[in-house]
Every structure is written in structure tokens, then in C-alpha cells.
Q: What sequence folds into this?
């Protein structure tokens, strides 16, 4: 179990105010020095957080200082691993202020693995519904394939322009009539959009429960800079990828689930570590009676303890200062992007999602416009920013619903066999009449600073003001 005592964070003020936020600049220099040493302007925190040197040191010191073996045994090295894994479960619950009597922690490879666990085991049936916001990551969208295969109805709630928010009245309408005799199905939505940064109301969890629905709350983009308190809001399933919060380790995520909801899941198979008893010749098995029934095979026992250190690290810094820093820089980025103009006064940038900082996180999606007012191919922006040492992301960000809302693509244009066959992505975009294969996304996080924002905005102004970039020689798009 890691600890941050005696580390760089020892003098970090924990109270609200400018001093604590200012210390983030000192923390960047001390623990994330590779950013400035290598000239990075890192603006892809929704893609992945960044690790502190202290996290990497702690990992090495733990492995060099002790011997750890495969859990699920009583030998000393196995017991040492089991102890750290269980301590990390406790740390995850504490981070979310979740009662261990109400919630369990299932370790997965990532948030996607957590979503798949729910999708494959949720008791979908004829008459049940899966309600999805159009603004969802594909790892959540994919649950619909399980629902459809079992006869459940799939309903999408649209992302409405200009802010690309889902309307609460549309969510309620999608639930249909109440269900006095049992649960109606599952509502799945993100606490924060990985495309636009929109933060959807957590009050929808209670609305869904009142109407007989379970709730999967995708928290992957939300928790790096926002507090999710599971003593106040009670979603049934919460997928998380820890590398998005603090950069290291990769390959470890969680499904944080209400025990009562977890007990209703019915897995379609079993694996090593998930059963209490099993017979090969008898053809029967008894699942484990706790969360380990959902942890297939050997856990990543050498990396899971690094999650505990990461949680300590974020807690010592304080989510308050992180949230305030990200909110301030997001407002600054939005202001500067919308102020960019071509010589004739036309905008250089088209934003997608909220133009202000209220009700949104630090993810900002946009396209660059050329001097004719046309969208600059996102591949050009990706190529040029990469050459300038700026890390942003381009494409649809695995969120087709938000992209369809951003580009005003109606459902009618998307129905039929448009998505079938052997067409390339470029042919697909041409059939839809789209000017680009997606948007540009800049996202802010723990050690972002004003210089990062200035570097991106300055680059965009210098590279594209008054210009019509040449599109020749671009490689074909391979995927969304």
C-alpha cells in the first residue's frame, strides 16, 4: 500500500484557495518535469492522465523490496499480494466515499472491461429497455448488442444543439411507463462526455431508480477532476479506468457496483478464480459469493497496488485544487479559441458543446476553419500539432452519437445499409457529406498550465489564420 507522506506533497495546502492551486505549478516542475524538459504541451488528459515520478519510484521500490506471488493461496508471497489487492479495494471505496456494505469493487483491465461485464451479465429480456444517451462512449454503446440479442428494446436520447446536452424530459420519456412490479431495465450515460465535456446531471440516477431502472454511470472522463460521492448519488454500476485519473498503472480499471445490483447479474461463463466449486464430469459450478466472481483469472497483482498509491497521491493534492485549476483553464481555452479570427473577421474555430465553463469539464472539442469558412481536415491539424510538440486528439473519440450531434447528421441519413459492406471510412464520410472525419479535442488535467493553453492557441493562430491548407498527401483514415 503506497503512501505520499514525506513526498513532494508534504507541504501541499489542503484548504480551498489560490495557494493550493498555485502549488500545482511547483508539483509539475518537481514530479512531472519530463513535460517541460522534452518540450511537451500535453492536452490529451481525457485520453490519459500522466504519472508522477513518485508513482514510478514507489512501484519500483515495492517490487525491489518484497516478493509477491499469485493470489488465491496461503503461501507467504501469495498472501502478500492478496493483502495489497484487498487494501486497494478499500482505498477505491474510500476515494468514492462508498460504503463497503453497499458497494463492491471488481478489478478489470479498464472501464471498457467493466462495461462488458455488465452488458454480458445484465438480465435483459423481452419487455425490458436499455436507455442510452446518444452522447456515450462506444464501450457503453456496445452494451446494446447484448440487450438486442435478448429481446430488450434499445432507446437513444439525443444530444441536442447547440450545447449537445441531453434534455431531462427526453430521458424521462425514454423510460416509458413505470414498473410497479419490478425493474424495467438499464439507463447508461456518462457523468462527463469524452467528446464535448458536457456534464450530465447526476440527479438522473434518482429519476431512473424511481422508475424502476438500474443505472450505469460512466465515470471515466469525470473522476480525474471531479468528486464522485457515492454516499450522495447511488448508481448501480460505475466503470473507471485508473490511468485516466493518474496516468499509472495502465491495464487496471474497476467496476464499482452496488452489491444488490451485482447479485442480479448472471454471467454467461466462469473462469479461474470466479467459482466456489465446480465439477467437470458433473457439469455444474457454483460462483464465488462475492465480487471475485467477476474477476476472471489472475488479477494484475503487481499493478493493482499502484492504484492505491495513485489514490493517495490525488487525495494529498486535493480534488478541489485540481477541479478549480481545470475549470479556470477550460474557461481560458474557450475564451481564446472563440476570439480567434481570420483577417476578414470570420471565426477560425467552430466549437462543439458548451461555449461557457458552466456544467462542463475540461474536454473541449472543435474544428479549425480555413479562410473560406470550411472545416480544415482533422488530419492536417493532427499532423501539424504533432510536429509542433502539441499532444491533442482528433477523430470521433469513440463517441459517434456526440459526433452525429455536432455535425447535425439526422437519423434518416444513418439508417439502412450505410454502415455495412466493405466501404472505407473515407467513402462512408463522403456518402454522409461530411467535411471532416471528426473534430479536434483538447483536454486539460492535473498539471495543465496557462502556457499549455497559450501554446495551442498561438499555434492555431499562426498556422491557419488567413490560410487554406493543402489537403494533398494525407493518409487514408483507418477508423473512427
A:
Amino acid at each position: 500500500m503506497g503512501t505520499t507522506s514525506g513526498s513532494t506533497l508534504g507541504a501541499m495546502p489542503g484548504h480551498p484557495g489560490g495557494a493550493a492551486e498555485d502549488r500545482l505549478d511547483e508539483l509539475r516542475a518537481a514530479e512531472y518535469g519530463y513535460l517541460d524538459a522534452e518540450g511537451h504541451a500535453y492536452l490529451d488528459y481525457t485520453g490519459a492522465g500522466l504519472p508522477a515520478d513518485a508513482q514510478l519510484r514507489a512501484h519500483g521500490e515495492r517490487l525491489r523490496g518484497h516478493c509477491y506471488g499469485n493470489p488465491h493461496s496461503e503461501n507467504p508471497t501469495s498472501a502478500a499480494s492478496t493483502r495489497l489487492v484487498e487494501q486497494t479495494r478499500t482505498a477505491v471505496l474510500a476515494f468514492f466515499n462508498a460504503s463497503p456494505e453497499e458497494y463492491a469493487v471488481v478489478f478489470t483491465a479498464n472501464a471498457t472491461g467493466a462495461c462488458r461485464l455488465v452488458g454480458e451479465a445484465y438480465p435483459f429480456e423481452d419487455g425490458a429497455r436499455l436507455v442510452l444517451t446518444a452522447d456515450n462512449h462506444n464501450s457503453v454503446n456496445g452494451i446494446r448488442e447484448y440487450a438486442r440479442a435478448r429481446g430488450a428494446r434499445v432507446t437513444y436520447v439525443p444530444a441536442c444543439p447547440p450545447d449537445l446536452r441531453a434534455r431531462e424530459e427526453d430521458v424521462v420519456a425514454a423510460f416509458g411507463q413505470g414498473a410497479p412490479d419490478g425493474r424495467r431495465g438499464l439507463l447508461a450515460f456518462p457523468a462527463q462526455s469524452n467528446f464535448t465535456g458536457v456534464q450530465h446531471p447526476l440527479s438522473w440516477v434518482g429519476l431512473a431508480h424511481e422508475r424502476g431502472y438500474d443505472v450505469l454511470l460512466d465515470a471515466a472522463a469525470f473522476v480525474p477532476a471531479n468528486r464522485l460521492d457515492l454516499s450522495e448519488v447511488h448508481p448501480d454500476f460505475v466503470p473507471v479506468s485508473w490511468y485516466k485519473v493518474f496516468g499509472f498503472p495502465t491495464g487496471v480499471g474497476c467496476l464499482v457496483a452496488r452489491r444488490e445490483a451485482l447479485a442480479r447479474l448472471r454471467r454467461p461463463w466462469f473462469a479461474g478464480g470466479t467459482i466456489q466449486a465446480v465439477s467437470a464430469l458433473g457439469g455444474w459450478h457454483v460462483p464465488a459469493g462475492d465480487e471475485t466472481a467477476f474477476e476472471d483469472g489472475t488479477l494484475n497483482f503487481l499493478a493493482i497496488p499502484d492504484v492505491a498509491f495513485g489514490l493517495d497521491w490525488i487525495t494529498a493534492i486535493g480534488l478541489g485544487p485540481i477541479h478549480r485549476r481545470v475549470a479556470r483553464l477550460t474557461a481560458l481555452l474557450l475564451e481564446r479559441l472563440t476570439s480567434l479570427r481570420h483577417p476578414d473577421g470570420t471565426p477560425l474555430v467552430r466549437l462543439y458543446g458548451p461555449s461557457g465553463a458552466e456544467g462542463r469539464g475540461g474536454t473541449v472539442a472543435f474544428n479549425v476553419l480555413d479562410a473560406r469558412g470550411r472545416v480544415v481536415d482533422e488530419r492536417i491539424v493532427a499532423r501539424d500539432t504533432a510536429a509542433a510538440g502539441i499532444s491533442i486528439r482528433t477523430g470521433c473519440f469513440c463517441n459517434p452519437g456526440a459526433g452525429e450531434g455536432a455535425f447535425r447528421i439526422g437519423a434518416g441519413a444513418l439508417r439502412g445499409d450505410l454502415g455495412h459492406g466493405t466501404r472505407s471510412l473515407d467513402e462512408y464520410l463522403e456518402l454522409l457529406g461530411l467535411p471532416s472525419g471528426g473534430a479536434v479535442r483538447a483536454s486539460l488535467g492535473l498539471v495543465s498550465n496557462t502556457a499549455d493553453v497559450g501554446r495551442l492557441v498561438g499555434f492555431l493562430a499562426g498556422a491557419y489564420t488567413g490560410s487554406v491548407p493543402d489537403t494533398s498527401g494525407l493518409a487514408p483514415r483507418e477508423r473512427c
Observations:
- Confidence is low (pLDDT under 50) at residues 1-17.
- DSSP finds 18 helices and 15 strands in the chain.
